[in-house]
Design brief:
The longest helix has 45 residues. The chain is built from nine helices and two strands, in the order H-H-H-H-E-E-H-H-H-H-H. By secondary structure, the chain is mainly α. The two termini are 19 Å apart. It has one domain. Helix 4 runs parallel beside helix 7 and helix 6 packs across helix 9. A two-stranded antiparallel ribbon has the order 1-2. The model has no long low-confidence stretch (mean pLDDT 80).
Length: 216
């Protein structure tokens, strides 16, 4: 029952399954094209010292990520018009309510022992938690020093020219802003790359929310 419910959660109750999956092929193509163009821009920067290419590279990256987010929001507009707010906004709480309704129907259909169910889910959470922390720590430990060294080197080179320094600062600011906007997409990627810890935790939270609403 636990495995069946988890598979149902993955197939029906996640942002990825309901939204991002609809644009999986297009999003993958966009990411590949954006990545190739970004690398080409870096290649031209390296061999020509024309920092305009780097600005173009990060601009392409930013636009590509925004386009993927735009596709997801169009999917929300078509599938869930009640939670769509505007071209770049949607109501997460209403989306969560829709997910909760689907889970409620599933639980009422199967009628499991909720105490035993949550106990088993919590065991899976604890099992996955160690792996999640370990893999996240390894990734952060490897990536952050490289990113820090890269930014430091870029800023050191750019510091020789105030205009270049200003351009670099603007590029990194825009990139961070773009990553923040496309957070939902990257959370899906993170769940895929690492463990199922977050999924189990979210499923458990939904069941708890269901029990509070139904007082069971």
């Amino acid at each position: 029952m636990v495995t069946e419910l988890f598979e149902y959660y993955e197939a029906e109750l996640t942002y990825y399954s309901q939204v991002s999956k609809e644009n999986k092929i297009t999003s993958t193509i966009v990411l590949i094209v954006v990545f190739v163009l970004f690398l080409l821009c870096q290649y031209f920067v390296f061999f020509t010292n024309q920092y305009l290419f780097e600005l173009w590279g990060f601009g392409i990256l930013f636009v590509g990520l925004l386009f993927i987010q735009f596709l997801n929001l169009k999917t929300i507009e078509n599938k869930f018009p009640d939670i769509y707010i505007s071209q770049w906004r949607w109501d997460y709480r209403k989306f969560n309510d829709l997910i909760l309704v689907k889970l409620s129907n599933k639980l009422e259909e199967t009628n499991p022992n909720l105490d035993l169910l949550q106990n088993q889910i919590e065991k899976n959470i604890n099992k996955e938690k160690t792996s999640f922390i370990l893999q996240t720590s390894i990734f952060a430990g490897l990536f952050l020093p490289l990113w820090s060294a890269f930014v430091s080197q870029i800023m050191e080179i750019a510091a020789e020219n105030f205009l270049n320094l200003s351009i670099k600062f603007t590029i990194f600011t825009v990139l961070i802003f773009g990553l923040a906007i496309t957070g939902n997409y990257f959370s899906d990627v993170r769940y895929t790359l690492f463990t199922d810890y977050k999924k189990w935790s979210k499923l458990n939270d939904l069941i708890t929310e269901y029990r509070l609403l139904k007082k069971v």
